[in-house]
Design goal:
A: mainly alpha; ABC transporter involved in vitamin B12 uptake, BtuC; B: 233 residues; alpha/beta; four-stranded antiparallel β-sheet
Chain lengths: 291, 233
């Protein structure tokens, strides 16, 4: 009883950490541009797939992973520079549709550049599971959790302690005022896309040893990450973390105690409930502003 | 210091400025008065580079800046406190002020923060609070303080007295005067023409996108047309 509860908790937290990272990617781009970037899942896919293929080409795992993250970051910046920044005067809705187009394009390109097979990576720290009070946890799961924690702490420091991080927050809050104090908002946009892509790719690298990867894993990850971001309150990094872990746990317990047939349905059920009952999510912004 | 020649700007197909010529001399307060919709705010936005220019040219300290991006102009010493305040509502008062110094790399930023707090003590009292929770007048002080944190040589002030109690208006205009005395050139846009001309060295009257009158501030205050149209006398 306790063992299976712990087991579901471990697997829920592991997959939830990945959803949280995808949700964090949504959050960063949404804050900088008001755009929900539906190509966020593709960043995760490109991170995982590039690592697999670079490793097949003979690179050591660590180098392949690092190069894959850099490559994905470049793709994220190109998405901004070639598609989003060029459509300057377009409405937010048009920009969101552009990201959907970019997501389809990247998925198609991945089929051509890579292939249509499922791929796996070896676990980074061995395959022997650790046992904790009767439940087992893979070292890779711990790496996923540690990686997600490190990224969240790093970003918190970036936004709260660095000048550039403050400039991102300022741009998100009031773009005109940011330009007037001398922030290069075009650079901040590119930075946000690059950062989101890097985070997505890192999630892809970390999770691939556990879940396998292929050219089309991005779609489902994006939808679940989006559910997580909505649950936490779109635009709030802390909400992304809580939302991601919650979606992971809901999915794991749903699969464990109800039926694994409906594993994917639980995330969508959450989206629907959020949209109907609390469209601002758990930690969404309540606008308090005096005029 | 700032020289504007034949400046045109448009919102879509509607032209708001139809060829404006204007000079701001170093060390002066130059004010631009005019009614609602005359194009005063548009003109300031063209100077700071957040409004596209469709014709004419701008030069600052002898350099053509017509095509320069807004952050480059801040780096050159132009700082703009915009209409409607536009503070960073989700950030603290202190963060707002520190962002004013975003492009500065010198060691005197903290000292300047202190001098802003000396000028507007209420901001020091509320330094840790979110700017969105400040009253209108306090946000106005914050917007001016943020613009000053850039250590500008040219300060653009758009309607600093809008919506403020008379006592605060006096306080803010006194602050503007003391800035000029410290060597900051000020380009002041005001609906409150009386108060603006009283502290200015030179004035321009903008009417539907064109300069209709200009001259020493004192002369404008005595001009019959100006008195009737803008001073309500």
């Amino acid at each position: 009883m306790l063992e299976s509860f712990l087991q579901f908790t471990f697997s829920g937290l592991t997959v939830g950490a990945v959803y949280a990272l995808v949700a964090l990617g949504f959050t960063i781009i949404y804050n900088a541009s008001d755009v929900v970037n539906f190509a966020q899942g593709e960043f995760v896919m490109i991170g995982g797939m590039s690592t697999v293929f670079l490793r097949q080409d003979g690179l050591p795992l660590a180098a392949a992973a690092a190069l894959a993250i850099v490559l994905t970051t470049v793709i994220g910046i190109l998405l901004d520079k070639l598609a989003i920044a060029r459509a300057k005067r377009a409405s937010v809705l048009s920009l969101v549709i552009i990201t959907i187009g970019a997501s389809i394009f990247l998925r198609g390109a991945a089929q051509l550049v890579f292939d249509k097979q499922l791929h796996r990576l070896p676990a980074f720290a061995g395959e022997d599971p650790l046992t904790l009070m009767g439940a087992t946890i893979l070292p890779q799961s711990l790496l996923v959790l540690a990686g997600a924690a490190a990224i969240f702490v790093g970003l918190w420091l970036f936004f709260n302690r660095s000048r550039t991080g403050k400039a991102v927050l300022a741009t998100a809050n009031n773009r005109l005022a940011a330009r007037l104090v001398g922030v290069d908002t075009a650079f901040i946009m590119a930075l946000s896309f690059g950062l989101s892509a890097a985070i997505g790719a890192t999630a892809g690298v970390l999770i691939t040893p556990l879940t396998l990867t292929s050219y089309d894993v991005g779609l489902m990850l994006a939808l679940k990450g989006f559910a997580a971001a909505m649950l936490g309150g779109l635009g709030n990094p802390f909400g992304a973390l809580v939302g991601g872990l919650a979606i992971g746990l809901i999915e794991a317990f749903g699969a464990g105690y109800v039926s694994s047939e409906y594993k994917d349905a639980s995330a969508f059920l959450v989206i629907l409930l959020i949209l109907f009952l609390m469209p601002r999510g758990l930690f969404g912004k309540k606008t308090v502003e005096r005029v | 210091m700032l020289s504007i020649k034949g400046l045109r700007s448009a919102y879509g197909r509607i032209e708001a400025l139809h060829g404006v010529d204007l000079e701001v001399e170093e060390g002066q307060i130059v004010t631009l008065v005019g009614g609602n919709g005359a194009g005063k705010t548009t003109l300031l936005r063209c100077v700071s580079g957040v409004q596209p220019v469709t014709g004419g040219s701008l030069s600052f300290k002898g350099t053509d800046i017509t095509g320069a991006r807004s952050h480059a102009r801040v780096a050159m010493g132009i700082s703009h406190s915009p209409e409607g305040r536009q503070v960073f509502t989700d950030l603290s008062v202190e963060d707002n002020l520190m962002l004013g110094a975003y492009l500065r790399r010198d060691r005197e930023i903290r000292a300047d923060l202190k001098s802003i707090f000396a000028m507007f003590p209420i901001l020091e009292e509320k330094r840790a609070l979110l700017a969105g929770g400040l009253s209108g007048g306090q946000q106005q002080m914050l917007a001016i303080g943020r613009a000053l944190m850039a250590r500008p040589s040219l300060l653009l002030l758009d309607e600093p007295s809008m919506g403020l109690a008379p006592l605060l208006v006096t306080q803010i205009l006194q602050a503007v005067k003391s800035l000029r005395d410290r060597g900051v050139t000020v380009f002041l846009v005001e609906q409150n023409a009386n108060a603006a001309l009283a502290i200015a060295d030179r004035g321009y009257v903008l009417e539907t996108g064109k300069v209709s009158l200009s001259g020493p501030a004192r002369a404008l205050m005595e001009n019959v047309a100006v008195r009737e149209a803008y001073l309500g006398i």
